[in-house]
Amino acid sequence: MNKKNALLDKEETTTINDMSLNFQEEIRSFIRSLPNVELKHDPMSEEAYFYGLRNFAHFHGPRHIDIRLSKTQQEEALRTHMALQHKYAPQAGWVSCVIETVEQAKNTKQLIRQAYETCVSPKT
């Protein structure tokens, strides 16, 4: 690889990382704007968001967030490709989202809103 191509690859990587950090900050701000949400450490992540005792979203680095949905919401998110199957706890409603594009950030915020509303709504 010549120096010019190596520099372009480095610039592209830097741009992608910068965009990912911006998306992560956008998602963080969105979550923190939700009433009564607390940021706590959790065995799954140092950046986990809770409503009461329920962890409903947590980051794994700047481009990956896990979100806990109801089973119906989870099925819809997977069917519409808004989220990916969670690797370790899909049975608990968890899905995973990669945040690398504007559309992915928009979808992620929509799923976070659903997860939050599930936490807030009274159980019947």
Provide an overview of this structure:
47% of the residues lie in helices and 25% in strands. Helix 1 runs parallel beside helix 3 (102-120). The chain has a six-stranded antiparallel sheet with strand order 1-2-3-4-6-5, covered by helices on one side. By secondary structure, the protein is an alpha+beta fold.
How would the blueprint of this fold be written?
Elements: H1 3-32, E1 37-42, E2 45-51, E3 54-59, E4 64-68, H2 71-79, E5 84-85, E6 94-98, H3 102-120
Antiparallel strand pairs: 1-2, 2-3, 3-4, 4-6, 5-6
CATH architecture: Alpha-Beta Complex
Can you give the mean pLDDT?
A: 86
Series of secondary-structure elements, N-terminal to C-terminal: HEEEEHEEH
From the spread of the alpha carbons, the general shape counts as globular
The major pleated sheet works out as:
6 strands, antiparallel
Strand content: 25-35%
Give me some keywords for this one:
Aspartate Aminotransferase, domain 1; 124 residues; globular; alpha+beta; six-stranded antiparallel beta sheet
Describe the structure concisely for a colleague.
With 124 residues, this protein is α+β, with helices and mostly antiparallel strands. It has helices at 3-32, 71-79, 102-120; strands at 37-42, 45-51, 54-59, 64-68, 84-85, 94-98.
